[in-house]
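call fold(seq) -> tokens
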Amino acid sequence: MDFEADGRFGNKRVHNRLGPAPGAASSSSSTKVCIHWRAGRCNRFPCPFLHSELPEAATTKRPNQRDGPGGHVWRNPNSGGGGRGGGGFNKWGRGPGGTDGGVRHKVPDRPCKFFLAGDCTYGEKCRYPHTYCMSNSITLLTPLQGHEKVVTGIALPTGSDKLYSGSKDGTVRLWDCQTGQCAGVLPVGGEVGCMISEGPWLFVGIPDAVKVWNMQTQAEMNLTGPTGQVYALAIGNELLFAATQDGRILAWRFSTVTNCFEPAASLTGHQLAVVSLIVGGMRLYSGSMDKTIRVRTENLCIVVHTFLGTVNVVGFDACIRS
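ret:
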């Protein structure tokens, strides 16, 4: 089947994508390059615009264009071809052979989701940054190195210029927030299971006890009662809660008369170690290795909900918070 003499095939106009024919009169559309083709995503067929660059001789300078030092050089970002099936830029902004053609591309504004999941196969060639946080206002100051085992808790007491970190190496380290240097090491006599701060108070959970320091008065206390490791600590309703390895939740209340923490309650119900505690909405939420989450009312004696699940230790805290 032949093309008609007037350039029509059926009711659709056929355009010469390689540029105007020599000596032929060009319409306004046939002398323009398709901007979607330049971006590598034109899906029109036929397309009324050119899928090739105009000859260099046909390219004119703008009145304010200057070449050389101190001037601006106007150039086509995709010079050299491209488009569908051509040798243009792919979705990564790279040209044939993996080159970028000297074009600066906008850096993606989000990290690689596969990197966050731990299974990105592109490595250094990945289009998206391999980082856990992207922000113009948050930058890494310095890594704090010194603990010999996993860090299980960090805290910054109110009014203190020291950051505290606890580790399974049995120490609590003090870090200068200005210099990032370790300002002290405090052995606590056992693996640190958790650490929180409330006002000037610092609470550290260790096997069979909770150690307490007041950063303003330098007072030190040792709260006994837990059996096994203390995995989580929480504060709410003027009570300090500790989640223990034997499945109990212990509570203390600070007494202004004796100026110390006194036992207030011992909550049972979980069959295995309690590993997460959250206080919110006049409720106490506890997650355990027995694969349940228990919700207690303000008086702590009534369990209003018990959720069954198959979440692991890491998932308990996120499940409770949600």
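The longest helix spans residues 313-321.
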